[in-house]
Structures are given as structure tokens and as C-alpha cells.
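Q: Here's a chain of 388 amino acids. Please give me its 3D structure as C-alpha cells.
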Amino acid sequence: MAATPQQTTHSSPRERTREDLYWLIRTSEEVTRSALVEVTGLSRSTVNHAVSRLIADGLIQETEPSAKGPGSGSGRPATRLSAVAAGAHVAGIDFGHNHIYVAVADGLGRTVGEERIELDVDLQASEAMDTAADLLARLRRAHGIDGLGSVVAGIPGPLDAATGLVQSPTILSSWVGLAPADELGARLGTRVHVENDAVLGAYGELTRGVGRHYANYLYVKASHGIGASLVIGGAPYRGATGIAGEIGHTHLPGQTQMCRCGNRGCLEAVVSVDSIREQIAHTHPALDPATLTLATVHDSITDRILNEAGRTLGGVLADLCNLLNPGAVVVGGELGDAGRALIEGVQASITRHAQPATAAVLEVVPAELSTSAELVGALQLAASAVPR
């Protein structure tokens, strides 16, 4: 279990303890009092007191486990603690370069309904935001949801935290100068919080995925673009102006592929879904690169292509690992979901090029939430903003 990503200022240590325990219970789905004692190192009496207060406040509930089967041992099984969904429903929007993925959820961020549509988001900003608003309206009607307590959206590009404006003229070119939070808020009739998609992917893994096991890790979204987000002490790091993690345009010496930013040899021009699809299609003439799904092609040639892509990505990440000393690198996006060959390539390069003491304690793992990490992160962040 990871640390609480957003610590709240309290007037007493007891209140801080209750907040920390509430977070652990909320992100663990169901957990026992004994497990809380083991994870936190708190005394059993402290945990019991805090849990009793959380139950009395209606924030968590205690339920009996299902009956044990024959031969499962003697003794009364421990009761389970889980958070109580309260407050308004929330919504999340994941804008990818080529898709829009939306969902509505209860007050704990648990999905009630979702829809996904393919669309060129980079070149059709207004249409993309109109479509997202229409999809959410349809989901709300389908599930009888009158109002939304919070909405969070993710975009695959740099967003200035001070102005709320999309910054780069070469990433999300039709969005430059727009304030997505204002644009979406006007369409949805409610306040919208917007983040970089890699930040939301990191938050999704932190709250519902493999990131729960690490207090410090580097999340990499490897898809049509390459982005990253660093989690420090259980909270995403956004940088001075909110655009930390833009690693996709790191220059790779000796590479000449043209990138959409106008330079040659950028990481995402060499390692991206489109680039790898073209390589697989070139070696598999019967396959159509436009409809190729990376996770479904398994043979030695494809593994070689994916492994080499992983090694290229890992070479860039090795320098970041030397600087940041994360406990893990979590690879998300379509490439993270493509199989072990790419993950093993990333691990091999980090082991080869990172400082040995850094590489020795670092794990490279695929995102547990697969390509849903960004949407799950949006829902979880939205739920965290709902008063409880």
C-alpha cells in the first residue's frame, strides 16, 4: 500500500492517523484491521480507535466475509473494511491522440458506465470536446445521473498550470491557446479540472494499480506519444509550471526519423504505436497496420521489434533513473500492454546503462490497469474532490 497522495492539514495527530487509514482502506477495496496494523506499524488499539471513528462518521463500513469452505481452517474469519460511497457522482474524460474515453462513477470513483470512441483529437479540438460532452450526457441519461460533483479530464500534451492553456504548437496543434478546463466547463455546465494524461495514468496506478506498492516510481505512458509522470512520496510531481514529464521529444543520437515537432530522431518518432505498427506490418505483409492491435500479435519477429523498442525507451529512462532513483518504472499505454518483450527490453537497457546501485533496486513492470490507467486516474482524482 502506498502513502496518502494528498495529505490534509489537521489539528491533531489522531486526525492525521484517521485520514491515512481512510486512504488505505479506500484504495485497498477491502482490508482487515490486522492488515492495517501490519502495513502502518500502528498499535492495534490505535487502529481500532481510528476505525471506530471512521465507521461512526459513515466513511467506512465493516462487513462479514463470505462463509469459509471445507478444509479452510478453524477460527472466526476477520471482518473486512471498505469505504462507503457518498456524495454526488463524478466523471472522467481521457483524451488520447486518437481516442476519447469517458466514464461516470460513484463517489468513490468506481465506474458506473463508460464509452470510448476513435477520433483524431490532435486536429479536431472543438469536435473532440463536443463529442466528450455528448458521450457524458448519454451516459448520465442511461444511468439516471442528474448532476456531477466533479469532472476531471486528461489531455496528451503540456498544459500550463498557471494559465490553464495548452502550450506546444506541435503537440495537440488545434488546441494551442485554448483553456480546456474552460471549454469543457462551458459544454458540461460544471467546473472541470484538466491534467496531463500521464499524470492521471500515474495517479490511476497509484490508487488502483501496481503503484500502490511503491511510494516513489516513474510512470511512462507509451502510446502514440511518449509521456511520463514521477510519483514522489505517494503524490504525482507536476513541476514548476505543470509540464514535467515531457520526454517524448528527447533527441536520440543517430536516429533520423521525422517527428511532428519538426526535429528528427525524437524518442516518440522512433518508439510509438505508429512506428512499431509499421515495422510489424513490414515484416508481416498480410497484416494491415491501420487495424493492427499490438497485444494480439505474438511471434519471434514481433518480439524482436518490441524488445528493441523497449531497449531504446529504456536507454532514455536510464538517465532519469540515475537522477530520480525511483523504486519502479511502470510502463502504461498500448506499448505497456503489448507483452513482456517490450518490458524486458526496457529492463535490459536500464540494467545496462543506469548506475548499478540504482538499477539493482528498480523494477520495470507493466501498468496493472493497462490502457485504462488514465481514465481510472481521472475518476479517482474527481472522487477525491467530492466532499465526504
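Q: Can you summarize the key feature?
A: The chain has three domains: 1-63, 89-202+373-384, 210-368.
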